[in-house]
Write a structure and sequence with these properties.
This protein has 194 residues and is an alpha/beta fold. It has one domain: 3-Layer(aba) Sandwich (Dihydrofolate Reductase, subunit A), CATH 3.40.430.10. The chain is built from 4 helices and 10 strands. A 5-stranded parallel beta sheet has the order 4-3-2-1-7. The longest helix is centred in the first third of the chain and has 12 residues. The radius of gyration is 17 Å and the shape is globular.
């Protein structure tokens, strides 16, 4: 069901997400997240400026009626591996790709070149995982909601490792939010292996 994920986290977790958005220059999501959830990618729950919206869309699947394309007073970029039409109100951002995937470092470089230095990789699971695997993430804010869903889409789909000695063990601070959501603030810059 489109947009159903907005009902997983409680109000405090959503406030936290909007505070993060208000403190970054750009919010990045993959086109799959836009198709599944139709997010606005704006700051609404707290005071703050609107970040640029960045949609990674290598194959031009973005629905021109997606809500994230609506004007919020901030720029909107569509990231692709080659030139092609983009929906009205959006700017194309062409970056290098390899094996039909857009490279996180190339995306970050292109955003930096456009003056966007603080970047929030918000979703979805494949996009976040690809950036983590590429070592293009400094911190991960992982929110766990007190809800039992059963099986479903994985939150992270990182490349497999052959042993625990290859596992990422970042310095982590844990915060219990009002309503029971738990925030794991993981600093990937200071970690040990294994």
């Amino acid at each position: 069901m489109a947009g159903a994920s907005r009902w997983i986290n409680g109000p405090s977790a959503l406030d936290h997400l909007h505070r993060l958005r208000a403190h970054v220059d750009a919010v990045v999501v993959g086109v799959g997240t836009v198709a599944a959830d139709d997010p606005l990618l704006t700051v609404r729950r707290v005071a703050g400026r609107q970040p640029a919206r960045v949609i990674i869309d290598p194959n031009g699947r973005l629905d021109p009626a997606a809500r994230c394309l609506a004007s919020s007073g901030a720029r909107c970029f569509i990231v692709r591996g080659r030139h092609g039409p983009v929906p009205r109100g959006a700017e194309p951002l062409v970056v290098r790709s390899s094996q039909d995937r857009l490279e996180p470092a190339a995306i970050a470089e292109a955003l930096f070149a456009n003056g966007l230095r603080k970047i929030l990789i918000e979703g979805g699971a494949k996009t976040v995982s690809h950036f983590i695997d590429a070592r293009a993430v400094d911190r991960v804010h992982l929110l766990v909601a007190p809800i039992i869903l059963g099986s479903g889409i994985q939150g992270l789909t990182l490349a497999p490792i052959s042993g625990l000695d290859e596992a990422l063990r970042p310095e982590t601070h844990i915060h219990i939010l009002d309503g029971g959501d738990v925030l794991f603030d993981c600093d990937l810059r200071s970690q040990r292996r294994g």
